[in-house]
Write the structure tokens for this entry.
Amino acid sequence: MDMEKFIKSNENDLLEATREILKIKSVKSSPLPGMPFGGGPAMALQYALNLAESFGLETKNLENYAGWAEWGEGDELIGILAHLDVVPEGSGWTYPPYCGEIHDGKIYGRGAIDDKGPAMAALFALKSLKDSGIKLNKRVRVIFGTDEESGCECMKYYLKHDEKLTMGFSPDANYPIINGEKGILTFSFANSFANEEGKSGVKIVSFKGGHRPNMVPDYAEAHLLGDIGEIKSIAENYKDEIPGDFKIEQHDNEIIVKSYGVSAHASRPQKGKNAAMLLVKFLGKIKLIDTQYKFIEFLNSMIGLDNTGKAFGIDFEDDISGLLSLNVGIVEFDQNRAIVTVNIRYPIRYSSDQVISQIRKNTPDYIDIVDIYDNKPHYVPEDNILIQKLKLAYEKITGEQAYCLSIGGGTYARMFDNCVAFGPNFPGDPDLAHQKDEYIEIDNLLKNLRIYTYVLKELAQ
């Protein structure tokens, strides 16, 4: 059977489907009736399921938490775990983030690489198998989630209400094969401020930076009460020490300090430039009222612009997954209280208890540690039959040697037994997830289609 013929026949439709689903702004929002994550994620899910139905695949919508498309026969179930929700677009895009425009052989849009393009490639891989008439002795199910970027409630719902997988993969990371994922620990530092009316010092009225714990903030803004001349002078005096991009304005009686950075995925915070922590560093040079200054000083001394957690004594490392990473994802102040949300990716051989106990030991009593959420590490041994099949398909299509590696990112694979992350990024590709001007190269999208078609054939026959 000439598989290439059937894959080739689906290429143009794959490109068009990818462009169409990128037009749907599937950022999580307030729940609506029958739409637990808002209208955008539900609309994207319905688009994918309608497309799958048009291919003649069996489909199911799980109350708009998740949905699936399936083909094949047998008791065993092979899963491809993709997500259709996206993080907020941020700012500074060259091309519109929700238009699916093609420029220089690339499809641009929020979710192009993370994870709508790969999701469509997986769906069209299943269609290519169906079109070829190959008999599958196992069922293959493309599962679409809608809350991967905000807690994975979608897959928790799936696991509670639907069938377990025999094995599977998530097209939401890198090639060749991701068989290890670090633990993900999220928590917040909370601090209440005493009433210091009448006391001298600049006062923070509000401070907001970041959208999600798993993103490096690319913008932050603080509103202050004080003397603008003094604050501008500090900006000038410390411009060489603080590598930030600040804009200072006066609006009525408030001074607004705007901080500009570069977004990146929280698993690779060193790739970005944290606008919120740069602004914290700037505020640390200002004579603030006492209680606000104490908290700002804590943030600067224990975190600052460091991504390793060294000051807390949590710069852990292991031989499987490497170094721990730390990202301050959200900073929110008002005149009475501050909440700073931190996202940590810790090595596979460590536990969240080891991390959080060390942080507690180095955090003053006046600061609370709240809203602790842990997603434990995930690891599949390299001799697993799934990994052997993935290696065969990758090497067949790319002509390159397949190998295993671990990442700081988290995929749906960690929620299932015998599942790993597989693609869509090839070695040497730029890191585009959660960044402005996200895109997927058309050649790589089509290469993913081939790899997924061949690996599903290997796994399901």
